[in-house]
Amino acid sequence: MKAVRIHQFGGPEVLTYEDVPDPVLRKDHVLVRIKACALNHLDLWVRKGLPGVNLPHILGSDIAGEIVETGEYVSGFKSGQRVLLAPMHFCNHCPKCVAGLQNQCPEFTVLGNRVDGGNCELIAVPVVNVIPIPDSFDFNQAASVPLVFLTAWHMLIGRAGLKVGETVLVLGASSGVGIAAIQIAKLFHCRVITTAGDDKKLEKARALGADYGIDHYKQKISEEVRKITNKEGVDVVVEHVGAATWDESMKCLKPAARLVTCGATTGPSASMDLRFVYSRQLTVLGSYMGTMGELYDVLAHVFAGRLKPVVDRTFPLKDLRAAHEHMENSQMFGKIVVNP
């Protein structure tokens, strides 16, 4: 099959389009022909070099396609069936997995990180990862959903315990997590403030349901939030930017509010004045992906049309370098998808 692999860490130039052996189908696995694979910032970090990645390596976490063949022990699926894949790898037998807490499994990782991903034509995965999609849902849409909508759902519902009618600040409206978080917060009838780097992105964010937009290049986030909330602050901050926005995010919290973070795109180092944290009784929550149960919860809303994936651009798999460059330029609004 054709695949894009990295044989060394570095820039987009290390992405190599080449022939690789077809995957071997295990008796408890499903072989899927990939029709679409969406990019995430994780792809950039793995390409540049993360611990635990063995080379050569295939990137790509968000996968949709058609079943080619099922293993001897697999039932309930058939050849030609349209599916998306849960974007994670876990053992499925440890106490955490059995309890439905797959993202706390000692072996947990994201597809395309410490295990090969979907920048290829075929992939063999455990049957537990395979989820049917409606006929009305195209492959590009399906590939744009799993990682970011699961991440945003776990952040807001699983970790922050979002309540109906709260005020939520979503950093980075144009990112996959931002797009998902805006819609999930509106699903719970929340007031949503979001940030982006230009008017076009803010306009698209408002079309998704955001009530207020802040241009983080021209405006100070905390000052604008204070104006919007009449100096009160927000109940929840959805933070995934990291060093560049951390101080501002903390300043936006009302007393007893929650900040939930799933990433650090601009860098992992952030500091806090603990006096500010304890005196205002703030909660800082870490969030990593989510569980299979949460994935099914959020997919129910996606398949019903209450939450909508947003596709920015598509590229052929052979042009994956150009897709990575497009992501690094931060001009997109929504998901970048590659098609084998």
What would your notes on this structure say?
The radius of gyration is 20 Å and the shape is globular. Strand 15 (253-261), helix 9 (274-279) and strand 16 form a beta-alpha-beta unit. Helix 4 crosses helix 5 (176-187) and helix 4 (146-159) crosses helix 10. It is built from 11 helices and 18 strands. The chain has helices at residues 41-48, 95-98, 139-143, 146-159, 176-187, 199-207, 221-228, 246-251, 274-279, 292-303, 320-328; strands at residues 2-6, 15-19, 29-38, 57-58, 62-70, 82-85, 88-89, 109-110, 122-126, 130-132, 167-170, 191-196, 212-215, 234-239, 253-261, 283-286, 311-316, 335-339. Strands 3, 5, 6, 9, 10, 17 and 18 form a 7-stranded mixed beta sheet that branches. The protein is an alpha/beta fold and 340 residues long.
**What is the number of E strands?**
18
Order of helices and strands: EEEHEEEEHEEEHHEHEHEHEHEHEHEHE
**Low-confidence segments:** none
The rounded distance between the terminal residues' Cα atoms is 10 Å
Q: Which overall shape is indicated by the principal axes computed on the Cα atoms?
A: globular
Structural class: alpha/beta
How much of the sequence lies in strands comes to 25-35%
- The radius of gyration computed from the alpha-carbon positions, rounded to a whole number of angstroms, is 20 Å
Largest sheet: 7 strands, mixed
